[in-house]
Amino acid sequence: MNKKIKITKDMTIGEIIELDENLGEVFLGFGMHCISCPVSQMETVEQASQVHGVDLEFLLKKLNENLKIKK
Q: Which of 5, 6, 54, 63 could form a disulfide with 49 if both were Cys (CB 3.0 to 4.6 A apart)?
C-alpha cells in the first residue's frame, strides 16, 4: 500500500526534515534557517512561518511540490 504523504501546517520542522532531508533547502530558500535549531523539533510549519513572516500556504505548496519530486 503506497500512501501519499502530504505536509501540513501542523507538522513540525523536524518531522518534515525526517521525511526528506532535502526539504531543508526549501526552508533555506525562504530564509528560514530553523532546520538546524533545536526548536525545530517542537515548532510547527505554521508557527515558523509566522515568526519568519513567510506566507504559509506558499511554503506548504513548495514543500509538497518538492516532496513529490523526491518520492
A: 54
Would you say how long the chain is, in residues? 71
Which sequence spans correspond to the domains of the chain?
13-70
Give the residue from 8, 61, 6 showing the smallest Cα distance to 30: 61
- DSSP annotation of 11: S
Question: Nine-digit cell at 35?
Answer: 532546520
Q: How does pLDDT run along the chain (71 residues), one tens digit per residue?
A: 346 889 999 999 999 999 999 999 999 999 998 788 888 889 999 999 999 999 999 999 999 999 966 54
**Torsion angles phi and psi, residue 8, rounded to 5:** -120, 165
Among candidate residues 48, 69, 56, the one with its CA nearest the CA of residue 5: 69
What CATH architecture is 13-70? Answer: Orthogonal Bundle (1.10)
